[in-house]
Design goal:
three-stranded antiparallel sheet; globular; alpha+beta; five-stranded antiparallel sheet; binds 2-oxoglutaric acid; disordered C terminus
Length: 250
């Protein structure tokens, strides 16, 4: 049977498929292994989304007051990721236990999920697309199992027009030296889903945010999990915090 493609639920067939996905962990795991990503549609309620949106505004306000020098470095698309959100707002911490993610991550890693970071990334109106990249570093490329998994919590719907994440399905299985060329880029898929959905992807997959043509922000929270094989991570200091930490300590 052909493997289905997941997208925003805009038909009765997709709505049924989405409800099946929410209930069927092994289908999620199979899809993740084959494609390098899986979409879990509409896990969060409108009330939760509102609460997360307000929590993000508080974090952004706190970081902003520290001035540009104290904020996180901009990435190549011009975005300012805000780091370690779960440490400052319970609404973000609550996402970590949200079913069915812990169970699916345990199945994929073979152990309880180990969170490495939780950052917000907003694609502002008019913001450029992000260069395609992998999140897993080359030093972890020889492992058969995923070493890094990102869970992208969509605070806004993702579409092609607003800079939804673009992925090359199956590229997590490419030889490490292979980089996307023009013919691969034609296979780039923009993930389209309603707010409250979670995209789970293997850090080896080539991906990046798109150009935001709309007048609205595209907000998302990235929870990054790492394999416990990645032993050295535990003895290294955590990455530098943004101004949020300094602000909340005052
Ligand atoms: O915001 C996105 O859609 C992708 C972000 C990303 O890939 C990154 O920051 O590494």
């Amino acid at each position: 049977m052909a493997r289905p493609h997941w997208a925003a639920p805009h038909s009765a067939r997709l709505t049924r498929l989405n409800s099946l996905l929410r209930r069927n962990e092994s289908l999620c795991v199979d899809s993740f292994i084959a494609e390098g990503w899986v979409l879990l549609p509409e896990l969060l309620t409108p009330a939760e989304l509102e609460c997360l949106g307000l929590a993000l505004e508080r974090c952004e306000g706190a970081a902003h007051q520290q001035g540009p020098k104290r904020q996180a470095r901009r990435d190549d698309a011009g975005s300012h990721p805000l780091m370690n959100l779960h440490e400052w707002e319970p609404a973000f911490a609550a996402l970590l236990g949200r079913a069915p993610l812990p169970r699916i991550l345990s199945l994929l890693f073979g152990h309880d999920p180990f969170l490495a970071s939780m950052n917000a990334r907003v694609v502002e109106p008019g913001e450029a697309s992000q260069g395609l990249h992998r999140d897993t570093p080359g030093s972890r490329s020889t492992y058969e199992h995923p070493q890094l998994i990102q869970v992208v919590w969509m605070l806004d719907g993702f579409q092609k027009r607003n800079g939804g994440t673009r992925v090359i399905s199956g590229s997590h299985r490419w030889a490490w030296a292979r980089r996307p060329v023009a013919c691969d880029v034609r296979h780039l898929k923009t993930i389209r889903a309603n707010a409250g959905s979670a995209l789970v992807f293997d850090g080896r997959i080539w991906h990046g945010s798109g150009l935001n043509h709309t007048t609205a922000r595209r907000r998302a929270v990235f929870a990054q999990y790492r394999s416990l094989d990645w032993g050295e991570y535990h003895v290294k200091p955590r990455p530098p915090r943004t101004a949020i930490r300094a602000r909340l300590r005052e």
